[in-house]
Design goal:
heterodimer; A: alpha+beta; five-stranded antiparallel beta sheet; 5 strands; B: alpha+beta; two-stranded antiparallel ribbon; 3 helices; 38% strand; HotDog_dom_sf (chain B); Acyl dehydratase (chain B)
Amino acid sequence: MSNTHPDDYDLDAVRAEWIGRLISEAKGRYPVEFDPIRRHCHMVGDLNPAFLDPDVAAEGPYAGVIMPPSMLPAYFAASGPWPPNEASGTDAETTAVFSFGVPTPGDRGINMEVQWEFLEPVRVGDRLRLELRIADVFKKPIKLDPHAIWIVTETTFFNQHEREVARWRNTMLIHRSPEQVSRDAERDVQTGEGA
Amino acid sequence: MTEKHSGEIDYLAERFWEDVSVGDELAGFNKNLDWTEMALQVSGSQDWNRVHHDVDYARDSGMPGIFYNTGWTTGMLGRLLTDWAGRSGWVEKLSFQMRGMNFSGTSVRAYANVTGKRLEGDRALVDLDIFLENDQAGVTSPGKATVRLPMKNQ
């Protein structure tokens, strides 16, 4: 929970401290498994046997079930959503805020843009790990919050052979809740400042 | 690569690079978004951001309600591509923006257009513009993708 008043927020200092910083070197608690892939496919109505049917997939180009490229490899490359593992950098607080630990005035997150490169198939049984870095932090106003902070991350995923299997560039927007915007505006009125 | 009938896809067929033309349209698929679909997106993505399952929290965050998450959007657009790419096709790149939100009670369509074909070394590539369109909000997620396809002489 951040709730820093925008006037107390030093964007230049945050950028200097956080851009380029390695945030997480999480490793998957479990290998890539059949059933989470099935749940992912169920989510979007995907019936592709390359992802769902071990017998059919065994005869295919990858000689077994692979993870759909659209299934975020982070699912298997981090400790998983529960229980939290502080060493992984994916503790509940960080996950809930989605700012990757970068200080922000607000504590509400919306994802804005994703760019994926899928380099190699990920098979059931693979062990994945990731390296996540902060690529950029900047301020860009939105209707809800003129002091919204945008955080760009770059994540590389590796398999158990230390081969890169995917790259992910993600842009997350962190904004204040309407209640916090109002509270900050009240302070501006009281102090004569203009947030 | 053929569609057997009304959306039933032959996943075992190949789609060859030579058979694809710039301007080809991927009809894609539709999905009606109800509360079961909303539950499935949390189950499938394991995304616990409360804006995707807690109505009060979403409204407190300034949103009209809970909305579908990035993992779901990625899955929808990924399925669009892998449904089309055939047995040996490989999605090399996928990118999109979240320009609008998808809510329960609406329906969406995932579709694409082929915008380019090129050979890079031994890779036969197809570039596509991809779209997730909502019946009430318009295109909520426009994006781009590159798919590698097999060639007939390989």
